[in-house]
Design goal:
The chain is built from 7 helices and 37 strands.
Length: 648
Amino acid sequence: MAALLACAGVASAQTATSDAPSPDAAAKAASEAGVPATSLPQVTVTATKHEQEVRAAPASVTVVGRDAIQDKASDDLMSVIEEVPGLTLSPRQVSGRKTFSLRGMDSRHTLMLIDGRRISASDDVVGHSNYQYGWVPLSAVERVEVIRGPLSALYGSEALGGVVNVITRWPTDQWEGSVRLSGQRAGAHAWGGDGGKAAVYVGGPVGQGLSVRLNAETGRTGAIADRDSPRYSEIEGRQATTGGIAARYQPNARHSFEAGWQQGREERRYDDVDARSRKPYENLYTLDRSHGYAQWNGQFGEVTTQLRAYRSAIDVKNARTNGVAPTRPQDLKDVVGDGFAQWRMGAHRITVGGEWRRESLVNAGLKGGKDAASHQALFAQDEISLGSNLVATLGGRLDRHEYFGSQFSPRAYLVWEATPQLIVKGGFGSAFKAPTLKQVSPNYVGAEGPHTFRGNENVKPETSRSFEIGADWQSGPFALRGTLFHTRVKDLITVRLLGVQGTRRDYLYDNVNRATMRGAELGFAWAFGPGLKWNNDLTLLRTRDDATGKELTDRPRHVLHSQVQWQNAGGWNARLGVDFTGSQRTATGSRLPSYTVVGASVGQQINKMLSWRAGIDNLGDVRLSEKSADFGYALRGRTYHVSLRADF
């Protein structure tokens, strides 16, 4: 423990809750009042379902604020959270696509939320996909909260590796808005990769107690051809348009009603060659996403309550040119009703709640072309103050699935504020992931490609048990933080070979593997001069397949993010970042080489309304395929980007 305290503490954050003012707006107001922005409290709502200072939250939390989101040349949410501690990139093996791993857990083991509401988990249902990251335009996002570690005790299935919660913007007591125009130019633009985006957000009061918000965004990025074989695309092109509207009515200080709808269409295009006929063709995937909700919040004395009903859906359709057969269309939908109550009782803050969910899938491989399953859950949490500087959090959730039965997920966490500068915390959590409808349906047969995959009604949920301990020390211009973690996973769902007929292999979904992940997240920050700050986050990871004793594939052992920031009173600011990804093992047993990517940008807040930013990503023009043909994802080469934003 002494060594741990000498190096670090849990990851930090930069923002406030969805009902609180924007952290960026708060920082601006504080600056105008002569108060340093760094003195503002840093809070999160995802860890306990109420606002809490991040350093004291019973979880490892990182929050990415609105300014950081707007300053990045991002295609989607994936680009925003790439530098979060504990996060590493994972390949999808198609057209440069990539997802992420939290503490060595696959992306399918991370629960994605919008304002605490789950979205349809497509990445584990649609092969080679990374469709989880485009549900909300970034112009409508206030912040992103990333919880590293299991949180099924509050949120249920999928939360083995962690939770990513996208908190959307809400206006305060006056009209506000922003318009942002951005463009990018590839260094080797002859191969493609140029693009641009336009986004608008506006919201404010329209009557007594009633406020509305609207957002819209459209953008396009061209595909990048493979320089070694131009008949293939190294990175797919994208074109997306999305928009949304929401309203909130607050008749008095104790009750509020809220409803909203978000709709979007995204097209992914890339060139490929058919494996059988060797015909070149263009592959087009059309993604239609929709998310609607209604919500009531109430306050009865010391009791805070919430009831919600919401629906999310994603429809995936494929078309191919030159007579090549497309893949089957797939439609996923989740309908959810949930609620909770929270109150104080002496030294206790108690939360109880429940959830009902109906998930459905339309796929021609299922009997009758569709299937569905119901989930019910009850959860409880008790945050116990054991003194002025010690808090214990105990909780558990009981989930019942229509097919596989019940699963209980407990959680225990302790936070100790040893001194105003030092916080030590740690705990245990259990989590699970329910099988997908493809995996658990005995009627599912997927035989589109060279192999056949069959569902299995006896498949069990994947489960994990995780321990962590960490510390956070801040004093003057210095900050040290670090967390040690250890996770055991069992009943991982994979495929078991049933037989071979000619070149076709027949597989059955089954619980086969066990795995162990352990590591450390270490951080150091130093404000070493007027307006100057240096921030570093290092992730150390060791993984093992318990059946074979071998290292898990596509998990880098070391990842380092280092960034220097500068700003002055005249509104100028600049950033220089270095991202290092260490060696990792491939499925063939070979090792991929490490690589380093450098980026830089400069910007200016011209006045209260206008700001601009320009920068270069991947300054060294690193191309992963030149380092090894075994990389299952690609990085954009050197890219120049510029943006102009007007806030009002």
